[in-house]
Amino acid sequence: MPAELAQAYRRCRDLHRSHGRSYFLATRLLPAWKRPHVHALYGFARYADEIVDRTHTGTPADRARRLRDWSERFLAGLRGDSVTDPLLPAVLHTVEVFDLDPADFAAFLHSMAMDLTVREYADYPALLSYMEGSAAVIGTLMLPILGPADPAAAREPARQLGLAFQLTNFLRDVAEDLARDRVYLPQDDLARFGVSTADLRSAAVAGRATPQIKSLIAYEITRARTHYAAARPGLDLLPGASRTCVRTAYLVYGAILDEIERADHDVFARRAVVGRGRRIALLARGLTGQAAGR
User: Fold this and answer.
1) Are the beta carbons of 220 and 167 closer than 8 angstroms?
2) Tens-place pLDDT, residues 181-208
3) Radius of gyration of the chain (CA)
4) For 70-100, how does the pLDDT look when each residue is reduced to its tens digit (9 = 90+)?
5) Cα–Cα distances in Å, from 252 out to 37, 114, 121?
């Protein structure tokens, strides 16, 4: 492997290890030759996310320009142009190896651009439109690497798992997203439980959720678990190591919702984290084929 390409894969792996601990742990269960390609996809998503999320560096226009320039370099690479970048060579190599659909990457980059201008979503269909690019396509991009025997049957469960993971992140990170002036909980859900964006901000300042906010979070957890349930049949469509990897990620991410419930649905008192001991126990469950029933 050329030195530049090997370095790009290492850069993606470092991003994955630093920012996606649970997912990184699950990826260790894949055959060694597949892991760098998963790191590449994670690195691609994380780097774009970093551009739009670093609200303390530059204006929105600056971040939009950086995202546009980086996206154009990537698209040029897809056309066969030479690309100089810390991690894009690894991503482009993974696209080539697995013949990944460029349209999925375009959808992802479109959603990242939305984060620069869209602060809230009126209802769940509107949020789903955003998550189509930010989450569902990640599931479909992973499928060729995971290697299901029936890719067509596995496609929708993979999309559903991407949505489930994304909603789990949204619920865990309500306070962090508010600090970036974003609310990923649908506005009509807030209204249903008598909550406003101002109420969320007050709760973030106080470090505790109101009863109304707790009811809202409980409702959104139920919605997230609906996506987990829709994703579960896809686990059985994956071969050996891929099934173990995804099953482990399924269990560990789902456990974040358990931690939120254990905290009485208060996402402002502390960030929901699955402790090391429980992660190890869930890893053991993943290895022995015990998937969550929900």
Assistant:
1) yes
2) 999 999 999 999 999 999 999 999 999 9
3) 19
4) 999 999 999 999 888 999 999 999 999 999 9
5) 21, 28, 27
Q: What is the pLDDT of residue 26?
A: 86
Count of positions (residues) in the chain: 294
- CB distance 8 to 86 below 8 Å: yes
End-to-end CA distance of the chain: 43
pLDDT (0 to 100) of residue 163: 98
pTM over 0.90: yes
Strands (E), the chain: none
Within 10 angstroms of residue 238's Cβ, the number of other Cβ atoms is 21
Domains located in the chain, CATH noted: 1-117 (1.10.600.10), 121-294 (1.10.600.10)
Distance CA 175, CA 181 (A): 10
> How many Cβ atoms are within 10 Å of 267's Cβ, its own excluded?
26
Q: What single DSSP character describes residue 86?
A: S
pLDDT bracket for residue 290 (50, 70, 90): low
The candidate with the shortest Cα–Cα distance to 104, out of 74, 64, 70, 67, is: 74
CA–CA separation, 35 vs 15, rounded Å? 13
Question: For the residues of 99-129, what is the DSSP string, one character each?
Answer: T--HHHHHHHHHHHHHTTT----SSHHHHHH
Over the stretch 246-263, which tens digit does the pLDDT of each residue have?
A: 999 999 999 999 999 999
What's the Cα-to-Cα distance from 194 to each of 86, 137, 168, rounded to whole Å? Answer: 47, 33, 22
